[in-house]
Design brief:
Layout: H1 2-9, H2 11-21, E1 30-34, E2 37-40, E3 46-52, E4 54-61, E5 65-71, E6 79-83, E7 87-93, E8 110-117, E9 123-129, E10 133-136, E11 139-149, E12 153-156, E13 159-170, E14 173-179, E15 182-189, E16 192-196, E17 202-209, E18 212-215, E19 221-229, E20 232-234, E21 237-239, E22 243-248, E23 253-261, E24 264-266
Parallel strand pairs: 3-7, 3-9, 4-8, 4-10, 9-11, 10-12, 11-13, 12-14, 13-14, 13-15, 14-16, 15-17, 16-18, 17-23, 18-24, 19-23, 20-24
Antiparallel strand pairs: 1-6, 2-5, 5-8, 6-7, 19-22, 20-21
Length: 267
């Protein structure tokens, strides 16, 4: 429980850090402002997407070039593109975005579609404030890193990545048909759903307010679970304890799940 208390203690600091450092600024990058993005990813090891009040949809395509389009497009070249030796950064925001909520129903978030070449299998970083992230189709990456403030991340199709790291201040994390040797998810307020495709890997989840559900075709893990105010359900059996550890199969994977307020369910 100590790490849960410590996690809660740094929540305010995390929020302040995100708000004061977003968007990130990179040195030694060539940059340009464009209406739509069309770029080669040759030599790029990391693709970084940053936004405010923009919903991202990542679609895998057979094309050789990256394309990004903004529906109901903003005027005045809404994309800022920064390119370094091995990293490409694309930054955009809704022109009417504000940090404080609007009482008008007229505000509508932007919609950006990323047509990602299937040949790009390196690292993808996404940072978003007030916007969802959807992976629409089968995607394979080395690393996937997501940072969100008020938004959800979800996928359809197979999602394969050696490492997946998701940090969310407010929003759900719903990952299905996942193949990954290492998944790490932290949420302040939001549910975490992880459904493995065929094989499971190491999994670490910390959430302050949200339920956690993990589904694996065949369990092969040693796991430690703890919740301050929630119920633990292991393979259909309700555990009458705040902390629980066990092992299934050969125990090859390591699973650690902690919640302050939320149920933990293993299927």
């Amino acid at each position: 429980m100590k790490k849960l208390i410590g996690f809660a203690m740094i929540v305010l600091g995390l929020i302040l850090l995100v708000l004061t450092t977003f968007p990130l600024f990179f040195s030694n990058f060539a940059n340009s402002q464009v209406d739509n993005v069309t770029k080669s990813l040759d030599g790029i090891n990391t693709l970084s997407l940053e936004s405010k009040a923009i919903h991202w949809t990542i679609v895998p395509v057979e094309d050789e070039e990256l394309r990004i389009e903004l529906a109901n497009g903003e005027q005045g070249k809404p994309f800022k593109v920064e390119q370094g030796r091995s990293q490409l950064n694309v930054i955009t925001e809704h022109k009417r975005f504000g940090w404080f909520p609007s009482f008008s129903n007229s505000f509508k978030k932007g919609e950006a579609t990323v047509y990602l070449p299937k040949s790009f299998t390196q690292g993808l970083d996404i940072s978003t404030v007030s916007g969802d992230i959807t992976f629409d189709g089968d995607i394979t990456l080395d690393e996937l890193n997501v940072e969100m403030v008020s938004g959800e991340v979800m996928n359809s199709g197979n999602l394969q990545a050696d490492e997946i790291d998701v940090d969310s201040v407010s929003g759900h994390v719903h990952l299905v048909q996942v193949t990954s040797s290492d998944i790490h998810a932290d949420t302040v307020s939001g549910d975490v759903l992880v459904q493995y495709d065929t094989e499971q890997g190491d999994l670490s989840v910390d959430t302050v307010s949200g339920k956690v559900e993990v589904t694996v075709p065949t369990w092969d893990a040693t796991y430690e679970l703890d919740t301050l105010s929630g119920t633990i359900v292991d393979q259909g059996t309700r555990i009458k304890a705040r902390e629980f550890s066990s092992s299934l199969g050969n125990g090859n994977a390591e699973v650690e799940i902690s919640t302050l307020s939320g149920d933990i369910t293993l299927n």
